Amino acid sequence: MIQRTLFALLLVSVASVFAAENEACEKLIECEAQAKAKWELCSVHNSTVDLLEHHESSCHNFTEHLHEEIHELTEEKSNHYGSCLKRLSPNASDYPLKGKKRAKCISIKKMKVNPSLKNRDAKTRRAAKEKKEKKNNAQKQCFRDVKKIRSRCHQYAKCCPIAKKCRDTSEIDKKLQEKKKTLHDSHKECRKQRQGKKKNGNGKKKEHKKEGLNVRRHPTSAAPVVAKQ
């Protein structure tokens, strides 16, 4: 009787660990999907703001293709991670958690993925239609929300044993790093060119103004001088 009881308790313990691992991975998948959706929303709004302010920034066309490439690589990285999690999540229980981490991860089931996501989305949509300053603030807040969701996803990833197996995106990370460096250098070069054009333009204005003053002070047609006889 005692042996059966101990065996039953062991089964319950093992089942609870498996449940914690599987649920953590399921919550991680859900969290990553919401983070991606939020990031896409922020990116769409950001593109809208860029188009509205396009006439104010001559660097837009200069760097637009780099922004698109970075966006594609970021999406590729997210898709790789999400699809890998979905593929391996049924086998999450093959990598049991141990010790204090096990107890900590059992309690992670109580965490909510993102309770305020819908409200944030509604606020962001309204804010995106307001003035330029409010649009910029809304964009900053939108990407802050993405970071908050990512932070929560990170907590789930600690309790999902397959998460590490899906993080091997070194090739994509390398490409992203190179593109971001190119973007930074392009912005720097564009600003440098704009400043040079402004200086040349101001210099030409000053020269024209100076020439105008010289014409007024030294008229080209002087009165003829008559010699005395």
Major sheet summary line: none
Query: By helix and strand content, what is the structural category?
Result: mainly alpha
State mean pLDDT (0 to 100 scale). Answer: 72
Distance between the termini: 149 Å
Biased composition (Basic residues): 189-208
Region (Disordered): 116-140, 177-229
Biased composition (Basic and acidic residues): 130-140, 177-188
Signal peptide: 1-19
Could you walk me through the main structural features you see in this protein, from its secondary elements to its overall organization?
Residues 116-140, 177-229 are annotated as: Disordered. Residues 189-208 have a biased composition (Basic residues). Residues 130-140, 177-188 have a biased composition (Basic and acidic residues). Keywords: Signal. Residues 1-19 form the signal peptide. By secondary structure, the protein is mainly α. It has one domain (12-187). Helices cover 76% and strands 0% of the residues. It contains six helices and no strands. It has helices at 2-52, 60-88, 99-106, 117-127, 132-158, 170-217. Helix 1 (2-52) packs antiparallel against helix 2, helix 1 (2-52) packs antiparallel against helix 5 and helix 4 (117-127) runs antiparallel to helix 5 (132-158). It is elongated and about 70 Å long.
